[in-house]
User: Which sequence fits this backbone?
């Protein structure tokens, strides 16, 4: 995964195909995190109890699970986004249509 937008921008210039795949995985990770966080907020105290520390540890757990889900491609959102971008770019290829990946 990437640590910053600048990292993705650098990857876009050096390896556009990998940048597209990475961006799809990042989106899938964020989407999975939002699902987990919403589910976690609706549950009772459970394993972590309540309080600030509980919120911190639950958030860490949700981020970790979301990254693993995105890396495995379990939801398939990253691949769907990648496919739509490829369709948008068309037959001309990534190198000739860099402006679409900005």
Assistant:
């Amino acid at each position: 995964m990437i640590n910053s937008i600048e990292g993705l921008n650098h990857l876009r210039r050096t390896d556009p195909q990998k940048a597209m795949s990475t961006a799809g995985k990042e989106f899938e990770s964020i989407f999975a995190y939002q699902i987990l966080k919403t589910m976690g907020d609706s549950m009772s105290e459970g394993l972590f109890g309540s309080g600030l520390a509980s919120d911190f540890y639950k958030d860490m757990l949700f981020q970790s699970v979301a990254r693993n889900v995105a890396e495995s491609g379990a939801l398939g959102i990253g691949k769907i986004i990648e496919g739509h971008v490829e369709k948008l770019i068309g037959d001309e290829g990534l190198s000739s249509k860099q402006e679409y990946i900005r």
